[in-house]
Amino acid sequence: MTILPTRDVCYGGDWNPDQWPAQTVAEDIELMKEAGVNLVSLAIFSWAKLEPKPGEYDFAWLRDIMDRCHEAGIFVDLATGTAAPPVWMARNNPESLPVNKDGVRLGFGSRQQYCPSSREYRSRSKALARALAEEFKDHPALVMWHVNNEYACHVPHCYCDVCEADFQDWLRDKYGDISALNDAWNTHFWAQVYSDFDQIYVPRTMPTIPNSAQVLDFWRFSDSQILKLYLGEAEQLREVTPGIPVTTNFMGEFTYLDYREWAKHVDVVSDDSYPDPALPGAAHEVAFNADLMRGLKGGQPFVLMEQVTSAVQWRPQNTVKRPGQFELWSLSRVAHGADGVMQFQWRQSPGGAEMFHGGMVHHSGKKSRWWSEVVKLGGSLSNLAPVVGGRVDAKVAVVVDTDSARARHLSCGPNEAPALFSAARAWHRSLWEKNIATDIIGVEDDLAGYSVIVVPELFIDYPKFAARLQVAAENGAHVLVTAPSGVVNPTLRAVLGGYLGSLSDLLGVVVTDYAVHSPDAAKWAQSDLWMVDPRVDRITRAVETPGVVDYHDLEVRSAALVRALEQVGSPRPAPRGGVWGEYVMATKEADQFTDPMWLNDEVEVVAQFAPESDLGGWPAITKRKVGKGAAWYVATDLDAVGRDALVRVLAAYGRVDMSASNLPDGIEVVKRGVVTFYLNHSDRAVQLAGVTGFDLLSQAEATGHAVVAPRSAMAIVSRE
Ligand code: GAL
Q: Which of 263, 316, 406, 693 is the most buried (most CB within 10 A)?
């Protein structure tokens, strides 16, 4: 689906003309033309102006703005304005304000102050969406609906009584019978047994560790309540304007909402992305988020709905992008599947919470360094129409699962983990560093066509997915699963009889125990528990504590992995595991503990834990041949060297194109449709051989030998 009738890449940003005098608005339109802006997101935070009193709409100002956009050839992504309800709603309906975990009702004066279960908010937001749709249904500038803004960004959960009653109903629907809930939540532990759904609380602040299954269900409930808000508005829009695509802006790696589920209900995926330019890994975050978004609707292009030109204002220190980086990261998004590059926001605010957040037009206007970058990017994007609609073809997939990330985060132990796709990000990074095109998919997505499938930390056991991985391996795929996986069922009950659950048959191994290191020993530094005076502490000085390091040394046993490590560097680097280690046994033979382990011939030990660790001699990486492919298991959080070497091995087996993996440092290559992007993330001009075709960005022919300037890009259309 293309968003603009012109089939151009969308370029523009959030525009808030209602916050500025008429003269500035006129100037804005002229500046937009100069910058090549072709799409603006309007009215995102305009509810108070659209409905100054309950039920009294004022759309005249918006119509005037939309008309002016149309005259200037600028299209509109029209917001429903419901992300910041006006003060009258808070005053007339205080119960519409959300309540936090400690029972405090949140106040008015910022934004997103609505309870997701509030009936008043629900009906008024739907009514506003309907009224806007009726008003602008035939407006020629309207090309997309932008429902609300960053749902759940500030208020992912509300703990009010209305939410509690709705949560009880949600549980009733899900479990049917209270005994099923008691069983799923294992409520006999700590005497939490319920005899009726209406006894159940939302998980407010409690004396100590809550029942994590209850909290996980509460997160799912909150997600579904918020999705209902979106669906309520989207339904109004679709009834009135069935031909206009509907979106709501996502926030990348955000697991309060399950975007894979949400994506089924948006016509276009759109994303807000603010990597921190202070961090070297930010260049990868740009690519990771883009691949994540492209993967939400089976490879369909998405829109980058928000990024900043220069620097945000909400970090303690807001590092500014380097010269050229704004364009470079924008083009990276396009290369990875974006059909639009939009900014927050068009004009930097003159006051309020976001006054120091960068914009396309800064406080200093055209005198700002950023203005020239904005105009330059507009010019570049205007040449990229041949990319629009194009797909990225990947033979490698990395699997992410929101519920698994939530479950791992919410379970108390084995060690703390953020509710993020950290392991998937690490594996994706290893592939990206080698310029290997990678899709990010979910557990229900089609696996056909992938010759390498990486399944990092799939905490929840999904028997159906395991069966589909088995089929993929039989058909030739190399499936790599990493720990901890298959540890709990979907209601956070432990898998009994050995972890990996239904993945065990495929992998040929079972996990009997985990052994986690605790490198945060530094926090004990001031305590006598940590101190040893070797001159006098006769007993303590003999106590060894290998568990305080943040790694597990590994010994490599497979010749293929040794060869791959030799390619990584000379002398051959040794791979390491991180804090996570496990006792892994061959599935069939492991009916009781023996030390060292014993495996059958069916499973090859690719690497094992080194003898210094208590896991010494136990397998760290295993491989089992399955049909035409294989199933690999990694029982530790492998370091970058280990991942790189394993990626080489898997790519070789899977016949994945590695031809761009040895290009000069800093060069990212991505092929999208007919266009190959060369992105230079380094500070040096880089010479590339064998680049032939037409460079859409410089509008010049590349004849074999190309020079890519520091922090810049080429977009080559092949002549073949
Ligand atoms: C987003 C939000 C925008 C703006 C921006 C600042 O989260 O959607 O309205 O606040 O962040 O970076």
A: 406
